[in-house]
Amino acid sequence: MERTLPFRWDDDARTLWLIDQRRLPDEEVWVPLTSAHDTAEAIRDMVVRGAPAIGVTAAYGMVLAHLAGEDLDEAERALAESRPTAVNLFHALERMRSHKGDLEASLAEARAIWREVERTEKAISEHGARVLKGQVLTHCNTGPIATGGYGTAIGAIVEAYRQGRISHVWVDETRPYLQGARLTAWELQKAGVPATLISDNMAAHFMKLGEVNQVIVGVDRMAMNGDFANKIGTYGLAVLARHHGIPFYPALPLSSVDSKLDDGSAIPLEERSAEEVTHLRGVPIAPAGFPARHPAFDVTPHTLVTGIVTEKGVIYPPFDEGLEGALASD
Ligand code: MRU
C-alpha cells in the first residue's frame, strides 16, 4: 500500500518534519519543528492528529526539548496539555520520562515507540481483516497519516480488501473537521480500495438498505470495561449499528487502553472551538455570533461493541477479562 506518514525525523538536522494535515488533500506541505514548544502547538492546532501519531510526535517533542535546551519538565507539561483525550500521548510521555536528561536514550525511545506503532498495526490489520466481509463503514480517519504505521481500522480495511474479503467502504465525512472526507477518502483512493463518501447523517439510510455489513472505527482512549472515546459521531454509529443488527468493532493498539479507568465516564473529552462548527474551512455557514458546541469526541459504551480488535487478536465479551489478559501478556 502506498503510504504517506505524518512525520519524518531528519537525523542530520535533528529536526522533526510534520505533514500539515490541515491542508490535505489539497497540498502536501511539510513543517519543520525544532522545539517541544512548537511540537505542542502543532498537536493542539491539528497539524498532526490521530491517537498513535500524536503519541509518537510527543515523544519526538521531548527529544527536541533536549536539543533546544528547553526546561524538560516545562516541555513535558506543554506536550501533556496539547490535547486531552488520546491516552497514547500520555503513555508516550510516561515512557520518555525515564530518559529525561539523556538525549541519545530519548531518541532511541522515541524511535522504539514509532517502531512499535508499525509492528502493532501490522498485527491489528491482520486480526481486523478476519472480521470484515462485504461492505464496511468507517468514521473519522485511522490510516497511516493518523498513526505513523499502517493504520488501525483502515489498516484492517486495506488488508481485508487485499484478501478479497470486502468489496466496498462507506466513508463518513466526519463533521465538523472532515477527517473522513479529507483524509480517509484520500488514503483509500491512494490504496486503490473502492469507497464512497457519505455525510454522517446518511449512515442509517444505507444500514437500513442492507448495504453496511460491519462498522469499524478507531479509538482515542479505552477503559478496562471496553467503553471507549473516539471521534464525535462514533457513539451514534454504534447505536445505529445495534438497531440494524450490524457488528460494530473498535480497532486499537493496546497503548490506547487506559488501565487506570474502570469505565468510560472519566475519560476527558476535548471541547474544540465552536468556529469549527459555524464555519466550513473558514467560510461561515451559520448566522454571525450564533452559539455552537464542538465536543471533539464521544464515549461509546461497551454494551454496543461486538468485538475489540487489538494486536493480540479480537477480544470478545467479557471485555474486562479479555483486556486484562491482553495487557498482562504484553
Ligand atoms: O481529532 P482527531 O482527528 O485526532 O481524532 C482522531 C480519531 O478520533 C481517530 O479515530 C483515533 O485517533 C484513532 S487513530 C488510529
Written description of the protein model:
The chain has 330 residues and is of the alpha/beta class. The protein has two domains: 7-120, Four Helix Bundle (Hemerythrin (Met), subunit A) (Up-down Bundle); 126-328, 3-Layer(aba) Sandwich (Rossmann fold). Helix content is 40%, strand content 17%. The protein contains twelve helices and 15 strands. The strands form five sheets. Strands 6-5-4-7-10 form a five-stranded parallel sheet, with helices on both faces. The two termini are 28 Å apart. The model has no long low-confidence stretch (mean pLDDT 97). The chain binds 5-S-methyl-1-O-phosphono-5-thio-D-ribulose (MRU).
Q: In CATH terms, what is the architecture of the largest domain?
A: 3-Layer(aba) Sandwich
Q: Regions with pLDDT < 50 over 5+ consecutive residues? A: none
> Would you identify the CATH H-level superfamily of the largest domain?
Translation initiation factor eif-2b, domain 2
Strand content: 15-25%
What kind of sheet is the major sheet?
5 strands, parallel
Assign the structural class, choosing from mainly alpha, mainly beta, alpha/beta, alpha+beta, or little secondary structure: alpha/beta
Order of helices and strands: EEEHHHHHEHHEHEHEEEHEHEEEEEH
Strand order, sheet with most strands = 6-5-4-7-10
The helix fraction, in percent, is 25-40%
Q: In oligomeric terms, what are we looking at?
A: single chain
Query: What integer value in Å does the Rg equal?
Result: 19 Å
Instruction: Characterize the overall form.
Output: globular
Tell me the number of helical segments per DSSP (H or I, 4 or more residues long): 12
Ligands: 5-S-methyl-1-O-phosphono-5-thio-D-ribulose
